[in-house]
Amino acid sequence: MDLLDRYLQAVRIYLPKGQQDDIIKELGENLREQIEDKEAGLGRPVNEDELVAILKQHGLPLLVAGRYRQPRYLIGPTLFPQYWLVMKIILAIVAFSYGVAAAVMLAESNPIGQVLAAVFSFAGAVLPIFAWVTIVYAVLNLCNDKFHLMEKWATEWNAKFDPRKLPALRSVPEGLGAKPIPRSKSIFELFFNVAFLLWWIRVAPIRRLALFMTLGPAGLSAHVPFQLGPVWHTLFVPVILLSLAGIGQQIGTLIHPSWVKFYSIARLTVNGSSLILLYFVIRSSDLLVLVPGTADPANFSEALRIVNLILHYSLMLAAVLTVFESLKAVRQLIRVRYNVATAPAL
Amino acid sequence: MVTTIHSELFENLRLELRRGSLIIAVLAQLRTEHYGYALRKALADRGMEIEESTLYPLLRRLESQGLLASEWREEDKRNKRFYRLSENGALILKELLEEWQTMNASLNRIV
C-alpha cells in the first residue's frame, strides 16, 4: 500500500488546508474499499500494476484535489469582458505611441540599435500597466464576490430599465455596418488635396493664389521677400507621397462610400504619417525665410517673425485636428466591427 | 479533424446534460445512507456510472450546501463517512424531481 499512501500524500498537497486530513481520510478509505473489492473479485491481493491502474483511473493528484476546491477566478466572467476591453484599449494606445516614437527615431537617423531598444522597451512599459489593471480588476472581483455588488446593481438597473428608452435603430447599410462616408466630404477633401499638391510641386497660379490667401494683396507682388525654409525642402518628396496617398484614399472613398473600414485604415495611416511630418516642421523655427538678396532685410524681420509665428501655431492646430480626425477614424473602425458583429445574419 | 471536433462537442454537451441529472441521482440514492464507494457502486448498478474523482467532491459540496448530512462511523472494523439526505435536501429533491418530470414531459412533446 506504499503506492496508495504516496498517492494520497500527493493529493493532500493541493487540498484546501483546513480540510486536508478529513478529505484524505475519506478518500483513503474509499480507495482501500475499491482495492479490496478488486481483490475479492480476483481472489488474491492486487499486484503493483493493478494498483497503478486503479490510481491512474482515479486521476492525477493535482486534478483530483482541484475538484475539492470551489472554482476561483482572479477576474470572474462578470468582469472579464470589461477587463479585456480596457486591456485592448491600453495596448492599442501604447503600441501607437511606440510606433510613432520609433518612426520619429528612424527619421531622425538614430542608430538602428537604439530604435530597436526603444521598441523592445514596449513590453517593459506595457507589463506594469497590465499588472496594475489586473490588480484593480482582481480587487473589484474580490469585492464583487464578497458583497455581490454586480448582482445588487443589476437588480437596481433591471428595476429602472425601460426598453422604450433604448436608442433608435441605427441604419445599417448593405455590406458594412457604419454610416457611409458622404461623397460631398470626399469631393471637398479631394479638391483641397489636389490644390495643395499642385501648390507643393510649384504650379505657378496655385502658388500665387496660396500666397494671396496667406499674405493678402502683398502676396501678389512680384517681389515677395519670403520663401519656404530649409525644413520644407527636406520633406519635399515625403509630402508628395503622402498627398498622393490621401488622394488615392479620397478617390476610393468617392467611388465606394460604404468602404468605411478602408476609409478608416487609410485615414489612420495617412494621419499617422502626417503627424510625423508635422512634428519635424513644428520643431523648425524658420518655416519661412527671407529670399536671399532681399534689400534691407531688417525691414522685413518683424513681419517674418509674425508670419512664422502664425504659421507655427497654425501647424500646431493642424496637428491637434489630425489627432481628432484619427480618433474619429478609430471610432468608425470600432463601429464597423460592432455593426458587423451584431448585424443580423441574412 | 472534423470527427474529433464533433466528438469533443458531443462530449461537452453530454457532460452539461449529465451535470444536473447526477445531482438528482445522488440525492435520490442518498435517501438511504451510503458511504462514498458504496454509493458509487449503487449508482453504477442502476446504470449511472460516475467517476470517483467527481462523486466524492460532489458529496462534500452538497453537504456544504446543507442538502446532505454525514457522520463518521465504524463498519466492518473500518471508519467510513456515511452520507444521507438532509431534511432540506429532501425538500429540494422533491422540487427537483417535479422540475425534471415537467422538463421531461415537455421534451417528449418537442422531440
Keywords:
heterodimer; A: mainly alpha; two-stranded antiparallel sheet; 13 helices; 2 strands; disordered C terminus; B: 111 residues; 16% strand
The shape of chain B is globular
- What sort of overall outline of chain A do the alpha carbons produce when their principal axes are compared? elongated
Total number of beta strands of chain B: 3
Q: DSSP helix count of chain B? A: 4
The succession of helices and strands of chain B, N to C, reads HEHHEEH
Number of strands of chain A: 2
Question: Percentage of helical residues of chain A?
Answer: over 70%
Mean pLDDT of chain B, as a whole number?
91
Count interface residues per chain for the largest interface. A-B, 18 and 16 residues
Structural class of chain A: mainly alpha
Average pLDDT score of chain A? 81
Strand order of the largest sheet of chain B: 1-3-2
How much strand content do the residues of chain A show? Answer: under 5%
Brief characterization of the structure:
The complex is a heterodimer of chains A (346) and B (111). Chain A has 346 residues and is mostly helical. Chain A is built from 13 helices and two strands, in the order αααααααααβαααβα.
Explain what you see.
The complex is a heterodimer of chains A (346) and B (111). Chain A has helices spanning 2-13, 20-42, 48-58, 61-66, 80-107, 112-147, 149-160, 183-200, 204-215, 230-234, 236-255, 260-283, 298-342, and strands at 226-228, 288-290. Chain A has 346 residues and is an all-alpha fold. Chain A has a two-stranded antiparallel sheet. The longest helix of chain A is centred in the C-terminal third of the chain and has 45 residues, at 298-342. Residues 341-346 of chain A have low confidence and may be disordered. With 111 residues, chain B is an alpha+beta fold. Helices cover 68% and strands 16% of the residues of chain B. Chain B is built from four helices and three strands; from the N terminus they run αβααββα. Chain B has helices at residues 2-29, 36-45, 52-64, 87-110; strands at 34-35, 68-75, 78-85. In chain B, strands 1-3-2 form a three-stranded antiparallel sheet. In chain B, strand 2 (68-75) and strand 3 (78-85) form a beta hairpin. The longest helix of chain B is centred in the first third of the chain and has 28 residues, at 2-29. The model of chain B has no long low-confidence stretch (mean pLDDT 91). Chain A binds chain B through residues 19, 23, 25-27, 29-34, 37, 58-59, 63-64, 67-68, and chain B through 35-38, 41, 51-54, 56-57, 60, 78-81.
